Amino acid sequence: MIKTSQVYVLDDVDKAALRALQSDGKMSNTELARQINLSPPAAHARVKRLEKQGYIHRYAAVVDREKTGYDLLCFIHIGLQMHQVEQVEKFRNLTQEIPEVLECHHITGEYDYLLKVVLRNRKDLERFVVDWLTPIPGIARIHTSLVLNEIKTTTALPLE
């Protein structure tokens, strides 16, 4: 890893370590060391440095949503009436408290926010829109798209 004015540039070994951990975050340090051609202590030090510098935020298990009963995956576009600081903050804070919201993105274009939401069924979707979204002050428009089929799903960044 090369440091240039407080910005770290990933070298090939860093990228290899990140690719390996994205593929299997549970792999042992010994296996990681073997894959990236370092000794286990050097691999461990490399990962600790990547964690400390914020390249690795956390480790998580990717759970199958359908097996756990979440049959619906939805993308919900939200348009706000006005962009007053208080309304925007309230929307962002409330969105973070809703467990079904996997992701919330502030976007450009016709809508202001895009939510990625998991729900169990149509009734859950109705409850979500009516009980959670509609009461949030300042929401002008809600547009929901249901995912029919996930063609590609990944959490891995294309580190080249």
Architecture overview:
The relative contact order is 0.15. Helix 1 packs across helix 2 and helix 2 crosses helix 3. This protein folds into two domains: 51 residues, Orthogonal Bundle (Arc Repressor Mutant, subunit A); 75 residues, Lrp/AsnC effector binding domain/regulation of amino acid metabolism (RAM) domain (Alpha-Beta Plaits). 36% of the residues lie in helices and 22% in strands. It is elongated, with a radius of gyration of 20 Å. A four-stranded antiparallel β-sheet has the order 4-5-3-6, with helices on one face. Strands 1-2 form a two-stranded antiparallel ribbon. It is α+β, with helices and mostly antiparallel strands and 160 residues long. The protein contains five helices and six strands.
Integer tally of domains: 2
Number of helices: 5
- Looking at the structure, the CATH topology of the largest domain is Alpha-Beta Plaits
**First-to-last CA distance:** 15 Å
Given helix and strand content, the structural type is alpha+beta
